[in-house]
Write a structure and sequence with these properties.
The chain has about 170 residues and is α/β, with parallel strands linked by helices. It has a single domain, classed as 3-Layer(aba) Sandwich (Cobalt-precorrin-4 Transmethylase, domain 1). Helix content is about 25%, strand content about 20%. It has helices at about 15-25, 45-55, 85-95, 115-125; strands at about 5-10, 30, 65, 100-105, 130, 145-150, 150-155. A 7-stranded mixed beta sheet has the order 3-2-4-1-5-7-6, sandwiched between helices. Helix 3 (about 85-95) packs across helix 4 (about 115-125). The longest helix is centred in the last third of the chain and has 13 residues, at about 115-125. It is globular and about 40 Å long. The two termini are about 25 Å apart.
Length: about 170
């Protein structure tokens, strides 16, 4: 995948080990785009994520929280609205220059999550592309992706075992 690819990840139904594997394989920064970096589940809270993904070889934290790409209405019935998308994009540009980024949210389905809009905004600003990562990690996860309208995403109905070599 090109360096200007914006990856997205929703952690519901996944484990911290799944997320850590993606961050490690892609050598990526993890950009938390939740409006609030808190969670009822302790291992998805900001402090736990910071520890989970650690630092780069240069000692820089791999975890970053970018509230500007958070959904202001995440806990209401209001329409999806990014808090400060221009500021959020400015924050992310400096990370993308160094290595890939994974935009993180709790929602399982990227099609109904604000990270779809956030990734689109970031990719447009960088003239990049978007890849929505499957929730569960496996070593040949790319086999379960298909490209539709220029976006890589998990193939509907595809199951993990279908790509695993015997």
């Amino acid at each position: 995948m090109p360096a200007d690819t914006i990856f997205t990840y929703g952690y519901t139904g996944a484990t911290p080990a799944d997320l850590a594997a993606y961050v490690g394989e892609l050598d990526a920064y993890l950009i938390d785009i939740r409006f609030s970096p808190l969670s009822r589940v302790p291992h998805w809270r900001q402090d736990a994520l910071r520890v989970l993904v650690g630092t780069t070889e240069h000692g820089r934290a791999r975890y970053r929280w970018v509230q500007g790409l958070g959904n202001v209405n995440y806990n209401t019935d209001g329409p999806m609205r990014l808090y400060a998308p221009d500021e959020g994009v400015q924050d992310i540009v400096r990370y993308v220059a160094a290595r890939p980024v994974i935009l993180l949210c709790g929602c399982k389905d990227w099609r109904t999550c604000h990270r779809r809009e956030a990734a689109t905004v970031v990719a447009a600003a960088l003239d990049g592309s978007v890849t929505h990562l499957p929730g569960r990690y496996w070593t040949n996860w790319r086999a379960g992706l298909s490209r539709v309208d220029g976006v890589w995403s998990p193939t509907p109905g595809w199951r993990l075992g279908e790509a695993v070599a015997p």
